[in-house]
């Protein structure tokens, strides 16, 4: 597999990761946080519009299948919902679908969990988002090992996963089953997205034929877990294949990304337990592990582009009124516990954070995804100060040159497998 070695060959992507009123569990208590507006469409529309105006390439929307607790931020799982945490959330995919027609440039990547959900429904809902957004949709694939999430559905028990072994990066049968299931769901989605050839809709009024049925295909997928016949109920979308992303902290998840994804989010330079098997590892080390996973999965032989590797970073920026370190300390006091993240936390001036991102780029990442500690304060500081600095220091693709999310990640145009087979047979 060929590897792009010149950093300038791939424009550096910059994304923003959204979670409620910010990634700190006490962020909702900040002045201006608007917690009363959190469950309205206008809240998400205004926040994502600000990100679009700032010129970010994409936004990801966090989601899960259970009430959030301090465990979401690195603490212990409480016996009941935690009254000090924003436990509820709106569905990320539905948020993205609402925001899509109200935006025109920014990519929209909702988190959708594969465990417990129906692959056909996941694939068609994401495909619909790609139509609504005009080719700006993506998918952050997530798995669930949570007993609480399994109990919420009641359809299958949670797998037995040894969390200590997983965090240490060791093999675990329960995790392996979850990952195999996720890979199957991703494969089904990709086949369904291809199941309508691009020219399947002909709209021939004279003959009364709206479709060319020879250009619709059954995918006939079957595994130990489920079977899907297809085709999709949604026509081929603008991108053909939506970019699939995965947040990964260990070689086992790197392998899933290499098998099923286009973009992998990594968490370098983090000494906390939340980083799992990535704890204490540099960008260069994690990039090397991802490339090794790609080699084992033989992505090149399967016609897949090299994974785009994006580093995650939680950010709190100094303001005229308060140092970021003081804000973090104050929020920790409100929460009653120090903030712990699966990412490195950068608290300081915009110049310092921009320098760190530049260093990470030199070590081999293709982009950065920024998690604002609080919204609106840190998000506004990212938009007004940090993003312009990054654009000055790092070659980025101008917004007007990348209409689709695939283009934002510098991924090649998707080739429909059935159309390609037809052309090969005709030749």
How does this model look, in words?
By secondary structure, the chain is α/β, with parallel strands linked by helices. Helices cover 36% and strands 14% of the residues. It contains 13 helices and 13 strands. Helix 7 packs across helix 8 (283-297).
Could you list some keywords that capture this structure?
427 residues, eight-stranded parallel barrel, alpha/beta, two-stranded antiparallel ribbon, 13 helices
Can you give the helix content as a percent range? 25-40%
Give the helix/strand class.
alpha/beta
Q: Give average pLDDT, whole number.
A: 91
The tally of strands reads: 13
Supply the number of helical segments: 13
Which sequence of strands runs across the widest sheet?
1-2-3-4-9-10-11-13
Task: Work out the radius of gyration.
Answer: 21 Å
Distance between the termini: 27 Å
Principal-axes shape call: globular
| SSE run | EHEHEHEHHHEEEEEHEHEHEHEHHH
Low-confidence stretches: 1-7, 72-79
What proportion strand? Answer: 5-15%
Biggest beta sheet attributes: 8 strands, parallel, barrel
What is the structure about, briefly put?
The protein has 427 residues and is an alpha/beta fold. The protein has helices at 41-54, 92-99, 119-133, 147-153, 163-167, 173-194, 251-260, 283-297, 324-335, 350-362, 377-393, 405-408, 417-426, and strands at 13-18, 58-61, 107-113, 139-142, 201-204, 209-211, 221-222, 227-228, 244-247, 263-266, 308-317, 344-348, 367-372. Strand 3 (107-113), helix 3 and strand 4 (139-142) form a beta-alpha-beta unit.
């Amino acid at each position: 597999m060929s590897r792009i070695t010149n950093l300038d060959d791939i424009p550096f992507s910059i994304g923003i990761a959204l979670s409620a009123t910010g990634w700190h569990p006490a962020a909702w208590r900040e002045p201006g946080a608007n917690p009363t507006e959190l469950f309205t469409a206008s809240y998400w529309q205004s926040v994502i519009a600000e990100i679009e105006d700032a010129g970010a390439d994409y936004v990801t929307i966090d989601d899960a299948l259970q009430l959030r607790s301090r465990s979401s931020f690195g603490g212990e799982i409480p016996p009941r919902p935690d009254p000090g945490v924003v436990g509820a959330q709106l569905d990320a995919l539905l948020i993205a679908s609402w925001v899509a027609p109200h935006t025109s440039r920014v990519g929209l990547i909702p988190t959708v969990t594969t465990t417990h959900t129906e692959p056909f429904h996941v694939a068609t809902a994401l495909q619909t988002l790609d139509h609504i957004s005009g080719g700006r949709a993506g998918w952050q694939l997530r798995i669930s090992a949570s007993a609480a999430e399994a109990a919420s559905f009641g359809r299958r028990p949670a797998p037995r996963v040894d969390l200590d072994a997983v965090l240490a990066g060791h093999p675990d049968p329960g995790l392996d089953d979850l990952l195999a299931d996720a890979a199957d769901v991703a494969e089904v989605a990709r086949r369904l997205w291809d199941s309508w050839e691009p020219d399947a809709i002909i709209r021939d009024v004279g003959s009364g034929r709206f479709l060319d049925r020879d250009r619709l295909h059954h995918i006939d997928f079957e595994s130990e877990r489920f079977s899907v016949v297809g085709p999709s109920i949604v026509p081929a979308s603008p991108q053909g294949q939506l970019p699939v992303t995965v947040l990964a902290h260990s070689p086992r998840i790197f392998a899933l990304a290499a098998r099923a994804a286009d973009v992998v989010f990594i968490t370098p330079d983090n000494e906390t337990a939340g980083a799992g098997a990535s704890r204490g590892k540099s960008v260069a080390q994690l990039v090397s592990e991802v490339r090794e996973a790609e080699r084992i999965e033989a992505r090149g032989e399967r016609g897949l582009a090299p994974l785009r590797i994006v580093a995650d970073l939680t950010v709190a920026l100094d303001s005229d009124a308060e140092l970021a370190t003081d804000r973090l300390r104050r929020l920790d006091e409100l929460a009653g516990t120090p903030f712990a993240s699966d990412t490195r936390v950068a608290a300081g001036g915009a110049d310092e954070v921009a320098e760190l991102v530049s260093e990470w780029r030199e070590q081999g990442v293709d982009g950065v995804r920024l998690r604002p500690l609080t919204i609106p304060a840190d998000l506004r500081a990212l938009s007004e100060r940090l993003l312009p600095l990054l654009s000055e220091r790092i070659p980025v693709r101008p917004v007007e040159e990348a209409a689709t999310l695939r283009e934002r990640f510098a991924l090649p145009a998707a080739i429909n497998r059935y159309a390609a087979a037809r052309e090969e047979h005709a030749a």
